[in-house]
Amino acid sequence: MADNGDEESQYRIKEGDYVVLKRGDIFKAVQIQTRKKVIFEKQWFFLDNAVGQLYSTTFEIVSGGNLQPQTPKNTESSSDAKEAGTDNRNIVDDGKSQKLTRDDIETLKEQGLKGQEIIQQLIDNSSTFKDKTEYAQDKYIKKKKKKYENIVTILKPSCRILAMMYHGREPGKICHLRYDTLSQMLTLANIHAGSKVLVFETCAGLVLGSVMERMGGYGSVIQMYPGGGPVRAGVESFGFPAHFHNMLHDFPICHVNALLAGTLDTTAKDTSSADSKQSNLATEEGETQPESEQQGSPEEQSMETNTGTDDGQDQEKEEKERRKEAKAQEKKVKLEEKRKKLAAAAALLEGRNADGLVIASRFHPCPVLMGLLKFLSPSRPFVVYSQYKEPLIECYTKLREHGGTINLRLTDTWLRHYQVLPNRTHPVLLMSGGGGYLLSGTTVATDHSKPAGPRRTEEPAPKRLKLTDTVE
After folding, report:
1. How distant is the alpha carbon of residue 185 from its chain centre?
2. Which of 32, 218, 283, 374 is at 20 to 30 A from 299, Cα to Cα?
3. How many beta carbons lie within 10 A of that of residue 73, not counting itself?
4. How many CA within 13 A on the CB side of residue 386?
5. In Å, how far from its chain's centre is CA 455?
6. Which residue in 216, 253, 210 sits closest to 232, CA to CA?
7. CA-CA distance, 197 to 194, in Å (whole number)?
8. Do 231 and 255 meet the contact criterion of CB atoms below 8 Å apart?
9. pLDDT for 396-430, tens place per residue?
10. How far does the chain reach from its first CA to its final CA, in angstroms?
11. What number of other Cβ atoms are within 10 A of residue 187's Cβ?
12. Half-sphere exposure (Cβ direction) of 221: Cα atoms closer than 13 Å
């Protein structure tokens, strides 16, 4: 029974969880916090009443910004028992068919009418609603529901939902990566539990979080990041448990050449020892200078003891010195932690036995790909995403010239939504122009003992011997 309770608790909303709010085709990622006002689609509300409810529950926003689970009652009352016309040829959109004005609708809202009741009032006061066809009536009702219904659905974060959220709200943050292309990346890279995966991405952590979700907390993920530090805004939105972050390691991509040359560990130790020496010298000077000043002359010491203002100044100096020492200690601790993390990530990379490579960034992928391929084991997949095909064509040509890879494929994806309804199934008119391009392949072991030059000279050797035999 305890196991069943634990399993059921995974599907219930808890305080501190990261959730995704959904209304229509619009998403927003937030964290459940008590008495925190959330603004979503020009409406504000509190998420306190959502704690303890199941995920994918639809809530209605009532007075005071509180959430109330929506009860399925009279959901299709507006469309039932309605007369419908044969066609819309005689309907003229002159703006005079609706008797209710904006002020009337606002007064209805102030009276406490809910969204469904306001929609019913709009239908009753429309002079052309009965003349519309059944399809036009359904379209009208759906349009008004989006505008006047105060409902919101709380979803559990996943890579598909977050990809749709980013692509709909801020596609530039994720390099216009579509969720179908993301799913192909995870499949082509063979992401699974227990593997060691290298990830280089500048998509706000969406690709990194998707890889971690697919691995389920087992294995190791090494994030190769550019700049000052890794960006993990998208990873936090997933709301992973604590043990998921234990498999995540960071490594700056600027140190890849040093790691391949075997000089990374010595330089890291030297810099840390130099920093510690400088900090030790600073602390020694800070400790010796006040003693020397106190031992300078007895007259100065007597003057300092006699005046109370000087005592206050000495206390302020001591407090400042303590603050400086505390800051120096914090810097030491941070540098030591950073060095340990760098050493742990370097130890994972030194074996050059990674199981997969995923690249999705705004930078040119060719130098990054050629450098990180050296850390993969033979017969391991890799995949590179780019919004444009020209950089991937250059990568394709470079890999063919360099060797060491097979099954190179440069592909793009086609995605189109369909409306599936009785007697009106057809493709949706508006669709995404493109989902980007993918370059995928597999690494192979290369024999560097025999270079390519002598192999060419060895080929014509038997032919020369045959010629000498015929002459003899």
Report:
1. 14
2. 283
3. 7
4. 20
5. 49
6. 210
7. 10
8. no
9. 999 999 989 999 999 998 888 898 988 889 998 88
10. 94
11. 13
12. 29
- The CA radius of gyration of the chain, in Å to the nearest whole number, is 33
Task: Give mean pLDDT, residues 275-283.
Answer: 40
Beta bridge partners of 350: none
Asked if 435 and 452 count as a contact pair (C-beta separation under 8 A), the reply is: no
What confidence score (pLDDT) does residue 150 get? 81
Beta bridge partners of 192: none
Segment 183-233, tens digit of pLDDT = 999 999 999 999 999 999 999 999 999 999 999 989 999 999 887 778 777
Contact 60, 67 (CB under 8 A): yes
The residue length of the chain stands at 472
Angle at 226 (CA atoms; ends 222, 228), nearest 5 degrees: 105
The alpha carbon dihedral of 231, 235, 241, 244 has a sign of negative
* Cα gap 408→400, rounded to integer Å: 9
Q: Which residues pair with 250 in a beta bridge?
A: 223
Cβ atoms of 45 and 68 closer than 8 Å: no
